[in-house]
Write a structure and sequence with these properties.
Length: about 160
């Protein structure tokens, strides 16, 4: 299973849509700060499941702050990250939250900085910002039938 992960688009959906059109992933994830951009993804690709959470700059009370999703054999915690103080460079609260929910993958945004690391048995992936900054990035996450996870940060 291939998952395209985006975050922090802040009103810039064009390159994100081009990327999805080019790679045709099995699922899409938008990690906040661009709820309208995520809606554009939903409209452009109605056949691809889209999972999204609320960021600190989103206004929709209807979006969840966190969500646990099963991607095949892997449980993933989706969050923008601001509730876990990820902008202070500490990921331990996020790791604990994932562990408490039985997740081996945590997808988060907020910092605008790409991250792909493992801590406490949890793969942590931040796709960076797909809308603001010098380097625009996204993440391709692959889930394997045996529960393995591979992640790669890519430039937009």
């Amino acid at each position: 299973m291939r998952i395209a992960v985006f975050s922090d688009t802040h009103g810039s959906a064009g390159r994100m849509i081009e990327t999805v059109r080019a790679i045709r992933p099995d699922a899409l994830v938008h990690l906040g700060d661009g709820e309208r951009d995520a809606e554009k993804l939903r409209q452009a690709f109605p056949g691809i499941p889209l999972y999204q959470v609320c960021g600190n700059c989103d206004l929709s009370a209807a979006l969840p702050l966190d969500e646990v999703v099963a991607f095949g054999p892997v449980r993933a915690l989706l969050t923008h990250g601001h509730r876990y103080a990820v902008d202070w460079g500490r990921l331990d609260s996020l790791v604990y939250a994932a562990q408490e929910r039985g997740c081996t993958l945590a997808l988060f945004g907020h910092t605008h900085l790409p991250e792909n690391t493992e801590m406490g048995g949890v793969r942590l992936v931040n796709p960076g910002s797909a809308g603001r900054g010098r380097r625009l990035t996204w993440a391709l996450v692959e889930i394997f039938e045996n529960g393995g996870v591979a992640a790669e940060i890519r430039d937009l």
